[in-house]
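Predict the structure of Phosphatase.
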Amino acid sequence: MGTNTFHLLIVELPQHPAAGEPTVLLRTKVGVKLGEGGISQGEIAPAAYQRALHTLQAFQEEMELHQVADVRATATSAVRVARNGPELVQDIFEQTGIRVEVIPGAREAELICLGIRRAVCLGAEPHLMMDIGGGSVEFIIANADTIFWKHSFEIGAQRLLDQFFRHDPMHPADVQAEHQFLHTALAPMLAAAEHFRPVSLIGASGTFDTLGGMQAARSGEDYAHQPAARAISLDSFYHSYNQLLALTHAERLQLPGMTPLRADMIVVACVLIDFVLKTCRLPHITASAYALKEGLLYEMLHAPRA
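Done. Here is the predicted structure for Phosphatase.
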């Protein structure tokens, strides 16, 4: 249960972990916009609250159809910080029987790292991993074996949108204001990056998926096809970034793979990516299609069986 999107992944696990990968039976997502209209005030707004309940009821029906035996449900930033988050968790349980675990930011970062490792071959050198959610942004510095540093910052795209997206298209002064804010808000990440010297940026979740699709469309490729990992060159990112800054909401909606949910958030998210690339001096980007839910699945797959 993310701040923007709720994901449902139903898989059939192999009898033994060594027997192979899980078989995906259903992978779907719903743009619930749980943070809309309330996250910056520390509340889940009534309309978003009802969308969440409706979506979990629909997910429960899918799970019954697939005869799901083991359910793991997690909630992140919006539920974590909202005053009425515990009430939503209780209502979900009473109406669907689904027990939602509200995970702390550090745990979220660990699961994201596990997921990314399933998609991207990291090797021995440290990389800066970044997952831009609606409520929080997780940064992890890690290689294939070790997490050197991790932190979750409550500066997700919905919060940045509320604070800095004052004009459409976004004005240069608003971009500069966001950069100034990030210099202060992300000081711990900048210090960690200076210490560990990551060699690249690995981005997970929606914004990076969309940037990868925009790059694919420019190359004449099928932008709807989403590989587990996709290299995004700096030239490609800045082509997309400058385009997004110049277009209106209606014009951004016409871009390949763009959704109404992401058409505004992607602008402030790309300002954040630009800031990270420049301040950490990172030469290239890899987009990972795997993140928290794949990390959780990997953990379940390798948990001791009773």
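Residues 106-292 form a domain with the Nucleotidyltransferase; domain 5 fold (CATH 3.30.420.150).
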